[in-house]
TrEMBL record:
It comes from Natronococcus pandeyae. Residues 12-170 form the DAC domain. This is DAC domain-containing protein. Signal peptide: none annotated. Pfam families: DAC. PROSITE patterns: DAC (PS51794).
Amino acid sequence: MDRHLEIPYERHDRVRRLIDAIRYCLESISLSFDGWNEPRIRGPGTYFAIVAGRSITDFADPMGDNRWPVDGSREVLADLDAFYEAAQPVALENDGAVVVSVDGVVQEQMVRFRDHPHEGDGYADWMGTRHMSALDTSLRDPVVATLTLSQETGRVTVFRDGEYDSIEHDDLASRWREG
């Protein structure tokens, strides 16, 4: 395979805007929930995967009846308010990952990604199964990025190629809240 012919989606402007839009949506969902410090209370939690390939059937399975509400929001960047309105109940009521293609189209069927063996000790102490899966899934060739919202802490994390950038709930939007 000639690497010169590959499309660098991770540096593609529209894909970066797509990742940012999903991240900001997850941050907004986290900030809108005020029970993060309550014992035995679980907040909204979710998992997105942005993929560049034609199919994920080699490493994902349908997650039962869990569906993204495509009637309310089929494409992330088309209407960010509609995307947020669709994401909020999904984060509260559904398990599984939401799959988004690099063109921003959201797939209706939510999935469970199969384990991806990797070498190294890339898991942080705070990572639960959703985050470990997102880190592993980010290592797969057709996956550009994965994003999670922790249902235990409200932390928002972006995973790319086994690396991650994570922001704890109390630090979300801190530069806008200061002052």
